Structure prediction request, 391 residues.
Amino acid sequence: MSSVAITDIGSLVTNDSDLGDGTLGIRTNAAIVVVDGKIAWIGDSKSVGVTDNRISVAGKTVIPGFVDSHAHLVFAGDRSEEFSARMSGESYSAGGIKTTVAATRAASDETLRANTAGLVSELRRSGVTTFESKSGYALDVENEARTLRIAKEFTDETTFLGAHVVPAEFANRADDYVDLVVGKMLQAAKSHAKWIDVFCDKGAFDVDQARAVLRAGVAAGLQPRIHANQLADIGAVKLAVELDCASADHLTHLSDKDIELLSGSKTVATLLPGAEFSTKSEYPDARRLFAAGATVAIATDCNPGSSFTTSMAFCMAIAVRDMGFTPEQALLAATIGGAKALRREDVGALRVGMRADFVVLNAPSYIHLSYRPGVDLVDSTWVGGKTVYQR
Ligand SMILES: [Zn+2]
Prediction:
């Protein structure tokens, strides 16, 4: 057994209203005690018992670690020219993924591993303690399995997204490609993946194809999640709810009916502000989701084509500025919302028995995360009671 006390926390966000003020359960002058990687005690800083180690954060803010439930981290190549062209007036379409596919297939394991490690270290620096990573930049049997195997070296939350886009060699033969995805590709990928995902949208896969992919994944022991309504509303949200997907992600185009379906389900509405930002798309109004009682998450969607950011704070700032979140709703969505989108109960809040995943902020309040956009406020990031990043 090893124990450590984090003391002199000026403002502690627990996400548990039983532990402090408001929905965020905020305590002042607080301390937490971590034993063997889990939260063992939360209380007043002056009442901390004896521990092996004691670390004072001198009045800083502590929040639960961010849970980034949507990212695409294993890839090679650079698409900054495409971004530049888009910012010069061209519109985003799903086809740009093909550039990354060619580079990823050609890259060595070492290159892919080094690229991923670089992004993971950025996530740590931005306060992310749990993250998901999808395949979908290889689109052939061998390389989809290879990129998932590499992703699994970094996280247990790996997602098979063979149905990201139809690769060039299957042009005009999307159904044949779906057969490959649900057949040989799924068999090769499934031992490296926890989740199955599909890009169900205009220019990607239609609802029937998406249903076939998700059902095959579930039959193979994976759990479903979905890319829905980024480019158009073709019925992906209805499918998400029909199949009890853990999360429907993007939701840029959202009908009242979709909102009603989501709020009556266990499917989390995951918004990806970085995607609208980087594609100059219109932002969805999250107030409609909150008013209906839906569970909402915010994730980075870190990917080279449409949202190349690892900063949860940046995504939260956009959500607050442009999507109608309050700072409180943004923090909940980026922590416990993300945990729910991954159906995790051990992360996303700070309560006795949960994994000791938290972030120390150089700020007097969590509100600074969206109040000071673009400013790096993370002092240290802790996973399982150990520092994974220290400024
Ligand atoms: Zn995505």
